[in-house]
Design goal:
The chain is mainly α and 280 residues long. Helix content is 80%, strand content 0%. The chain has helices at residues 2-21, 25-37, 41-54, 59-71, 75-88, 93-105, 109-122, 127-139, 143-156, 161-173, 177-190, 195-207, 211-224, 229-241, 245-258, 263-277. The radius of gyration is 27 Å and the shape is elongated.
């Protein structure tokens, strides 16, 4: 009887200890964040699951779970987590923004633009969101709208190089080559070592019938970044136009070495090979 009483007392003590030392949802969430900070995303998900088992309305935890899933490349599930966070708090700016990023990774640019637009309606000072929305609009060939986004970024940060490069790219696509050239020239004043800026400048010069100057820009771009597939492709096309087909092929091969899915380089290489077959 004494042993039975002692056993029951021990069980009660252990039960009380487990209650006393049980982690809260906040503690599980923090542990998940710590693991995510070490790139241990699978382990962090286990912590977030435990936090949400305690508090299914834990907005920040749903958001953190979405980030972990996105880092694992599981964008569909990440979007579900962001949606849960937004259901609880429809004004959760970061959830809207990161949902947009996950949609971009799935190639759903129209939907991503809507998320970015919502983000900016909540916080118009989100500079990365303006830039990301502009990039989506460029992919959707809405160049004028994209330029407005990049102008907003530049207004917030006049030395934001990627936004300036994106704006120059959009201007080139619109055939506004002189304007594109002016943007790249301004960018190079404070970022002379940016490979993409030199490449975009070379494109504008080429279209302005300054092919030799354009070629020098592509070479400068590749001097800075030898793996810039766009510069290799553009350099190759100028050689193609000059009738220097062997050099052109070398450039297109380099472009495809660094980006095997670069369709324009494949097209340009095929055109050059066809030219090489023509009788002299």
């Amino acid at each position: 009887m004494l042993f039975k009483r002692l056993f029951i007392s021990l069980v009660l003590l252990l039960s009380m200890a487990s209650i006393l030392y049980a982690k809260s949802a906040e503690e599980w969430n923090k542990e998940g964040l710590d693991l995510a900070g070490q790139d241990k995303y699978e382990d962090s998900l286990s912590c977030y699951d435990k936090a949400l088992a305690i508090n299914n309305k834990y907005t920040e935890c749903w958001y953190n779970m979405g980030n972990a899933l996105a880092n694992l490349g599981n964008f569909h599930e990440a979007i579900k987590s962001y949606n849960k966070a937004i259901e609880i708090d429809e004004n959760y700016t970061s959830a809207w923004n990161n949902k947009g990023g996950a949609l971009v990774c799935l190639g759903k640019y129209e939907e991503a633009v809507k998320c970015y637009d919502k983000t900016l309606s909540l916080d118009a000072g989100q500079i990365d969101t303006w830039n990301n929305m502009g990039a989506c609009l460029i992919i959707l060939e809405k160049y004028e709208e994209g330029i407005k986004c990049f102008d907003r970024v530049i207004e917030l940060d006049s030395k934001r190089v990627d936004a300036r490069n994106n704006k120059a790219y959009a201007l080139n696509k619109l055939g506004k080559f002189q304007e594109a050239l002016e943007v790249t020239d301004k960018t190079l004043e404070f970022a002379p070592g940016n490979s993409d800026t030199w490449n975009t400048r070379g494109w504008a010069l080429y279209e302005l019938d300054k092919k030799e100057e354009g070629l020098k820009c592509f070479e400068k771009s590749l001097e800075i970044d030898p793996k810039n597939s766009y510069a290799w492709n553009n350099r190759g096309w100028i050689f193609h136009l000059q009738g220097n087909y062997e050099e052109a092929i070398k450039c297109f091969d380099k472009a495809l070495e660094y980006d095997p899915n670069y369709e324009q380089a494949k097209i340009n290489k095929e055109k050059t090979l066809e030219k090489m077959k023509e009788p002299e």
